Amino acid sequence: MPDLLLELFSEEIPARMQGRAADDLKALVTNALVERGLTYESAKAFVTPRRLTLAVGGLAARQPDRHEQRKGPRVGAPAKALEGFLKAAGLASIDEATVQSDPKGDFYVARIHKHGAPTPEVIAEIVPAVIRAFPWPKSMRWGAGTLRWVRPLHSIVATFGTPQDEPEVIRFEVDGVVSGDVTRGHRVHAPGEIRVKRFDDYVASLDKAHVVLDAERRRDIIRADARTLANAQNLELVEDEALVEEVAGLVEWPVTLMGQFEAEFLDVPDEVIRATIRANQKCFVLKDPATGRLTNRFILVANLDATDGGAAIVHGNERVVRARLSDARFFWETDKKTRLDDRLEKLKAITFHAKLGTQYERVERITRLAKELAPRVGADPAKAETAARLAKADLVTEMVGEFPELQGLMGRYYAMAEGLDPEIAAALEEHYKPQGPSDRIPVAPVSIAVALADKIDTLVGFWAIDEKPTGSKDPYALRRAALGVVRIILENGLRLRLLDRLGPEIGADLLAFLADRLKVQLREQGKRPDLVDAVFAAGDSSASDDLVLIVRRVEALETLLATDDGVNLLAGYRRAANILKAEEKKDGAGAFEAAPDPALFAEPAESALSAALDVAEPAAAVALAAEDFPAATAALAKLRPEVDAFFDGIMVNAPEPSLRANRLALLARLRRATRAVADFDRIAG
C-alpha cells in the first residue's frame, strides 16, 4: 500500500514548540484522512529546528465509494420543495428519483453513488487547510503573504507511492509555496537542494546532509557524547533531562565540546553556577565525583562539525560564560553585604496579590502561623518564628532577581553566611517544598512548621477571596500547595486538626479540596478514593480533618473489604440502608432512630442481631477511641452471621405497625454502628 511523506521546511522553530507541533501535525492530518474514509497502518511525526515531518504508512490508494439514500418531499409537493431536493441530492430531474411508500404516504428518494477520490487528491485538499489553520502558540506573517506560521515557511515536500513504484509528487500551493520533492540539509554542511522520494530515502539523505531527523536520537547522541567527554576527564555529568530536551531542539547535527572557566568562580554556590551557565548558554555542568562539587568545566553542544575542531566555538562560549559568572559573583558578593533581616522593609513594596496584600503582610501571617504550629510538629517556636519572618527575604536580593528559580535556596546560603542557626537556614530553602509530586518533603521540624504555614496561608487566602481552581485552571498553583500539605502531614506522621487552622467560614470547603488531593495521593499508592470518601463522611467527627487518622481508617477499611466477612457485611448494610431509605420517605427522616424495644422482638434472629450489636458497638467505640481502627472494623465484621440470618428469616415490613417500626429501628442501629467507622453508602462496587 502507498505511503505519504510530508515535510514542512521553515526557519528555526523554537525548541519549546517543537514537540507539540509534531503531535499536532500528526493528529490533524491523520484525523482528516480518517474523516474522509482513508485508513492507514502507521503514522509518525518528526521535528528538527527547521522542519516538521510526517510519515504515514499503508494508506489506501483511494477513498472507498459511498452509497447514500436521501429521502425527499412527498409526491405532489410544491415545485420549490422539489427543486431544493434535486439540488441537494445532485439530481438533474425528478425522474432520476424513485418513489417509496410508507404509512405516511409516497415520498421521493434519491439513491446517490459517489466514487471515492484518489488519495493524492484528498491529501492535496487536507494539507493546505492544516497548514493555514495550524495551532502555533505564536505565529507570524512575512512579506506580502497572508499565511501565519511560526517562522517563514520555505518549502513543502509531499510525495505518495508504494515502495516498489516511483512515488508521485502531490501538487498543491500554500501562499506561494508550491509542494514538491525537494528539501535541504544542514544550513552549513549541506545547504543545497536534495531530491527525495519516500521516507526511507528521505531519512538517509538527511543523515548524509548532517541532519538527524529523530529528536530522540539527537537526545541520545547528546547524552552519550556528553558523558563520554566527562568520563575522559574523570568527571561526572550533572544530568539535566530538561536541558537535553531543549538543546536537542536547537541543533540538527549535535556535536558536544568541552569548555572551562577560571577556578576562582567556584567560590560562588554550585547552584548559581549551574543556573548561570544553563540559562545563558544552554550548557551542562560537570562535577567531581570524589567531592560532589562542581568543577570549572562545562559541556556545550554545537550544531556543526567545525574545521578547527570547535576551538572557536568553545572560545566564544567560554567568553560569554566568564562574563555571566562575573555578574553572578558580583550579585553574590553584593547580596551578602545586607542582612536578611534588613531586607524585610523592601517586601512592603512587593504585592503578593491585590486582595491579599504585600509580601510583608503575608510574611507576618506566615510567622504567626508557623509559631503556632511549631509545638504541634516538634519545632522550637522561636526558631520557627525567625525562619518564617526571613522566609521571603531573598526575593529582594540581586541573585533571585536574576534567577527567580533560586528563591529559597539563596535564602539558605545567605543565612549560612550570616551565621544563623542551621535549622533556620534550612527552613528558608525547604519551606517551598514539595514543589511537585516527586519532590522531597521537609522533614526537619522547623522546616515543616514554616512549609505548612506558607501553604496553609496560601490556601486560606485564596479561598477567602474566592479564587479557587476551576476546571483545569489553577493560576496560583493551589492544587500543588494542597498536595504539599497532604504529603508533609502524611509522610511525617503529623497529628494536626486542620479545621482549627483553616477557619470556620471556609474550613469545610477547603477541607473537601484537601480531601480531593488526598485521594490523588492515595490513588498513586494504589488505594481506592471511594474509601477516602467513606471515611470523611463517617459519623465520628474526629475522622474529618486528621489526615493521618483518615489514612489509617482507609487502610483498615480496605483490609476489612478484602475479606468475605467484610464483603457480606457491606452487602447486608446496603440492604438495610435501602430499606430504611425507602421507609423514611414514607415516615419521615429520623423516624426510626429510637432504640429498638427488645420486648417487641418476635423472632430469634432479631434478638441475635440486637445482642451482636450490644457487643460490637461498644467494642468498636473503644477501638475508635484508642485509634485502633483494625480492631474497630474487626468488631463490625463479627456482625456478619447475625446480619445474614436477619435478612434470611425476617420480613422487615411486617403488617403490624409496631413490629415494622421496631425492626426498622434495629436496622437503623446497624446503620449507626457501621457509620461510626465509615459511611458505607460511599463505598463503590
Automatic annotation (TrEMBL):
Reactions accelerated catalytically: tRNA(Gly) + glycine + ATP = glycyl-tRNA(Gly) + AMP + diphosphate
Q: Which SUPFAM superfamilies match?
A: HD-domain/PDEase-like
Q: Where is the DALR anticodon binding domain?
A: 571-672
Keyword ATP-binding present in the record's keywords: the answer is: yes
Q: What is its EC number?
A: 6.1.1.14
> Signal sequence span per UniProt?
none
- Molecular function per GO: glycine-tRNA ligase activity
Q: Which Pfam families match?
A: DALR_1, tRNA_synt_2f
Q: Kindly report the protein's main subcellular placement as a broad class.
A: cytoplasm
Keywords attached to this entry: Aminoacyl-tRNA synthetase, ATP-binding, Cytoplasm, Ligase, Nucleotide-binding, Protein biosynthesis
Q: Which InterPro entries match?
A: DALR_anticod-bd (IPR008909), Gly-tRNA-synth_bsu (IPR015944), Gly-tRNA-synth_heterodimer (IPR006194)
User: Where in the cell does this protein reside?
Assistant: Cytoplasm
User: Is ATP-binding one of the keywords UniProt gives this record?
Assistant: yes
- Alphabetical list of HAMAP family matching this protein: Gly_tRNA_synth_beta
Record family assignment:
Belongs to the class-II aminoacyl-tRNA synthetase family.
Tell me, how does this one assemble? Tetramer of two alpha and two beta subunits.
Provide the protein name.
Answer: Glycine--tRNA ligase beta subunit
Organism, as annotated: Methylopila musalis
Upper classification of the source organism reads: Bacteria, Pseudomonadati, Pseudomonadota, Alphaproteobacteria, Hyphomicrobiales
Gene from which the chain derives: glyS
